[in-house]
Amino acid sequence: MLRMESTEHHVGIRLAGDYDELERLYEALHAVVGTEFEYDDYEASRLRVLGVCYDLRHAMMGDRGAVALPNGYSRDIGEFLNVSGPDKNMYFTCEVLWPEAIFIMLALDDFIDMYERKMKSHVWDLTVITVRSFQSAIANCLEKTIPATKFNNAKRYFKSYAPGKYNRFTTMYVDDLNITHLEMTPEKRVNQLSILVKRLADFPDEYYHLHHQVLESARRHNCHPTDLRYNREYPEDWEW
């Protein structure tokens, strides 16, 4: 089972799982987002999901982090079953910025909808269940991180899904939220998490302003919006 917690400075989430769990999630995310430009209007969002897949792959290679957690084994159990073994399991870890994680949690609904229609999948499709478990883990992590009143406000936006909501979504807006989040104090980051959900589910005016700017720039340069680079820079380094 995937484990998830907010990082020490509430910059993002820390995901932990064993090799098989991370590989299952990696494969499921790849499956639902499809191949390059299979869903042309979702290519920018697809690349953000693949960014998480990149970190998952490196976590499985031991390039991110690891933590040893109790697995329930004890000397008494070992003596009763006449077996011996470690009392902890090793889990690989990686981090994802909070705005990025919230966006992906919400946008995956569109990808699941398209995947189910393409595959004519059944209700117990393992790929869909795996992705839903990932979404659920992010929501649960959010619930554990912010006050109950704020989470009650945020979870209203989990229910307001409409197919196609993230069609042609301008993901530079996620970059903007990521950078702003990094500039905050840890306390302010926690206070802003429920607001992030609202902004990424009920797009504000500043999103539409940026969206139209990006489309116009892509038209002017005769390129795909994913070929454009955002003009705000991420910090070179930060403490999670």
Description:
This protein has helices at 19-33, 43-60, 75-81, 98-119, 126-145, 148-154, 172-182, 186-201, 205-221; strands spanning 3-6, 12-17, 65-70, 88-97. By secondary structure, it is of the alpha+beta class. It has a four-stranded antiparallel sheet. A hairpin with a 5-residue loop joins β1 and β2 (12-17). α1 (19-33) runs antiparallel to α2, α4 (98-119) runs parallel beside α8 and α7 packs antiparallel against α8. The chain is globular and about 70 Å long. The mean pLDDT is 95.
Provide a quick synopsis of the model.
The chain has 240 residues and is α+β, with helices and mostly antiparallel strands. It has nine helices and four strands; from the N terminus they run ββααβαβαααααα. The mean pLDDT is 95.
